[in-house]
Specification:
Largest sheet: 8 strands, antiparallel, barrel
Radius of gyration: 29 Å
Distance between the termini: 62 Å
Structural class: alpha+beta
Number of strands: 12
Number of helices: 4
Length: 213
């Protein structure tokens, strides 16, 4: 080992440069990996974080909340979205009314579910960052008891985490019995309940949470 005090200045500089060159570069720290775009993978509905509700109005003034307790769905990478509603899971808060809704109104023995289908534009949501929201118009087809009705609304999509998205409407969606040929069934319910009227149109609200599969 040479005596450093006897080396000329140029040699000392050369030794210092050589030592620096031999040390590996430090790995970067604190850099977050960008989450995958929303267009990657298939998204499945998270039932625990989702809710589908509607409000029925009877006698022209009494509004009552109702919901469906079992729903499932998915969104494919090409933007094809589907939602299945288990009609037997209707929950009005009154047992006899639930039974009448299942057997008379929906006829769940032959029509166990309602389906909602829509086609989203994946490019519109591809760049959505975690914590950001985006509002877009939505057209969907709803099928109940073999009859199909078309609805139009706007939804707000929020990327809650890298692999979790929440969808809510910007306003309630109005669904009418006329859209699905359910006017007679509604009349039968009204007669059984001995009511002067049951409003045929109901506002529907929902919170749908999807997780990347």
């Amino acid at each position: 080992m040479p005596n450093l005090r006897t080396l000329p200045l140029a040699a000392l500089i050369a030794l210092g440069l050589a030592a620096c060159a031999e040390q590996p570069a430090a790995a970067p720290t604190g850099e977050a990996t960008a989450p995958a775009p929303l267009t990657e993978g298939t998204w499945a509905l998270d039932p625990a974080g989702s809710r589908l509700s509607y409000v029925s109005i009877k006698a022209g003034e009494l509004a009552e909340p109702n919901r469906f307790d079992r729903i499932s769905g998915s969104v494919a990478p090409d933007g094809t979205a589907s939602l299945d509603i288990d009609l037997s899971s209707v929950n009005t808060g009154v047992e006899i009314r639930d039974e009448r809704m299942r057997e008379i109104f929906f006829g769940v023995g032959e029509n166990p579910k309602a389906t909602v289908t829509a086609k989203l534009d994946p490019a519109a949501f591809a760049g959505l960052a975690v914590g950001q929201s985006l509002t877009r118009p939505l057209k969907a087809s709803v099928m109940i008891k073999g009859a199909t009705g078309e609805i139009e609304t706007a939804v707000m999509v929020t990327r809650v985490t890298a692999d979790r998205v929440m969808v809510v409407p910007t306003a309630p969606v109005i669904i009418s019995t006329d859209m699905f040929g359910l006017t007679d069934e509604l009349g039968e319910l009204r007669a059984l309940a001995q009511l002067p009227s049951i409003t045929p149109a109901v506002p529907v609200t929902f919170t749908l949470t999807f997780r990347r599969g």
